[in-house]
Amino acid sequence: MSAEDPAPDAAPAAATEEPPAAETPAPAPAPAPAADDAAPVAAREIDAAADALEKVGVSPPADPDAPDAPDLALKSDVLVEEPETEVVKTVVSDTPYASAKSFEELGLSKELLQGLYSEMKFERPSKIQGETLPMILTPPYRNLIAQAHNGSGKTTCFTLGMLSRVDPTSQSPQALCICPTRELAIQNVNVMEKMGKYANISIAYTADPRWTERASRRDKIVDQVVIGTPGKVLGWMREKQLNCAGMKILVFDEADQMMDTDGHRVDSLKIMKHLKTSTKQMPQVLLFSATFSERVKDFSTKVVPNANQIFLPAHELSLDVIKQYRVNVTSTDAKEVLLKEKIFPLCDKIGQTIIFVRTREGCKRLMRAMNAAGYKCTAIEGGMDHADRDRVVKEFRDGLTKILISTDVLSRGLDVSTVTLVINYDMPVEHSNPRQPNFETYLHRIGRSGRFGKKGAAFNLLLGADEKAVLDSIADHFDHPVPEVKFEDDDAFEKVLEEAGLMSKED
Asked: DSSP label at 218?
């Protein structure tokens, strides 16, 4: 979503002084059940859900024309200045928590503080870190469901939580992080190695070559921290390579995918069930993600009981800093004409552009058409091998290409500060129902612009009544109107980009 290390083109790691956020009264939380009561409820929920889902299965059939899922390898944990209007809505248990203004307030070891300051180059906690870290680190170690911006420091929250709970003198697994992709697991390992550089803590991860070699396949894991994808981790558990008796903390990164029926819900529940039976007490569970659908949120609160919750209203995630527009077109050819004649001539003046298409074949076709017309574009889609995908992203990061055509493989995780324009060539819809908008994907797509507190814009190209209805539903969902730019108005596109703050009249 690229390593988790701060990208070279990112904003400085230290957040600037933030004004006080507006106070939003949180609803009074219901009395939390006693710890002794919560465990059996959780056990029943996990067991029932895992057994039911395993019987019916939830994986959709393979479809060569299906939309690509997001590749989270490009995720960034760069600390950025957060919007002044950000309001975090928090529901907590009966345990009192005070927001942390400094890392010293958290009672961290000198080794972890050294890693934060000298390796991560942090100066103070971001807003989400200040809110969540006291919840994570304060006994009795309540579960946590947290949603916040990409780039706000989420990875630091759970990484620091894991490292702080580990006893370096005990050669046994104590912290487990589950990630939806191999690439993201590697990125989280990179962050943890930097942050824990002075803490004498070892890490085992499923993509490590040492665990794929025949000689090591049955070796017992003695590293204190384990990071990996759900299938591989379950394999370690079944082969009894991974002894979970001493596990203290379990993290699900990109938890909306981990708990979704179209994602990794079955394996996630199996992992929780295994931990429940392997440990005397269920470990502390942390769910972190940039978005949670209501469906996934409801399910998560059932299987992760007695949890503190931190949610940012969805419309506040990106929409306030990104100007959105609709353009009605009469044909697919008209979409291409619009790009070539009205938008691309402006792209040299506004930074970098990402164009989202729905399918792999559509991505390749559009790139061929644009290149044939003399516009230098690159493309990335899930069918490419990892080396080619890495090359395309690196060229884009380095500024060698200004226009990138992509499926939803990049709808999450690409943090490039110079991206100012996103074009939805195809609207994001549910694979099972092309007339149903995918609200989270839309939010993530347009959120590729306006990174690091900068301004951004998005054009939605609408062909036919179905695509218009999809955008209307999205606008209603986020309570955020999307004005029209007339296709026929040659000057309109430059005007709205000026209004969005991406161009000046002198450009």
From this structure: T
